[in-house]
Design goal:
The chain is of the alpha+beta class. The chain contains 3 helices and 13 strands. It starts with 5 loop residues before the first strand and ends with a helix.
């Protein structure tokens, strides 16, 4: 098993808007850790290490959370982040504690590779879903679901049921929706319709 990234945090006693405002003035981010066992711990964490960790692992990769002077790290996910709408800095974080032996549901980014053959015919690659939901044990969750779109022609798409099989990972969905596809640009389609209408008049 690859060594997990680590983030050290501290428990916090101050709660409420005023206490959180003071933390942010000190470049600290208020947050909370919770898990399926019912634990709920108010935390504070340095903003820079948290931001660096999130850019490195996102919200679908497990890391080791160390609270205060605890000797044992807690496997966790960065579950939710709240950003300042103006400055874009992180102002709140939720950490979800996970059991490495139990599967969980999580959204994973969709990543495409290859150049669709439909592009040379005037098509445009469209990603209909930026993420897809999967069920997997925490350490089996992929960084991304990679879709090779090389063979996609005009008006063709890959449904979620057609995505590549990933060992230990199950895609969660009710409707068999399209994830990526090659579409005809609106202006091109409208131009074609106009040309057909003119031909019909003639």
């Amino acid at each position: 098993m690859a060594e997990l990234q680590t983030l050290k945090v501290q428990a916090r006693s101050g709660l409420g808007k005023e206490a959180n405002r003071k933390l942010r003035q000190e470049s600290l981010v208020p947050g909370v850790y919770y898990n399926a066992k019912g634990e709920n711990i108010a935390l504070q964490v340095q903003g820079l290490p948290l931001s660096k960790l999130f850019h490195k692992i996102g919200s679908s990769r497990v890391f080791d959370l160390i609270i205060g002077e605890e000797a044992t790290a807690r496997p966790a996910l960065i579950w939710k982040l709240q950003h300042n709408p103006v400055k874009s800095n992180i102002i709140h974080v939720d950490f979800l504690g996970v059991d490495l032996d139990k599967a969980i549901k999580v959204h994973v980014p969709v990543e495409v590779t290859g150049k669709p053959k439909g592009l040379v015919k005037g098509g445009r690659l469209e990603i209909f879903r930026e993420t897809v939901e999967v069920l997997a044990k925490p350490l089996s969750i992929p960084d991304a679901v990679v879709v090779d779109v090389t063979d996609l022609d005009l008006n063709e798409s890959y449904l979620i049921s057609e995505l590549p099989v990933i060992e230990g990972v199950k895609f969660i969905y009710d409707d068999n929706f399209a994830v990526v596809g090659v579409v005809v640009p609106t202006e091109q389609a409208e131009g074609g319709e106009a040309a057909s209408a003119e031909a019909a008049v003639e």
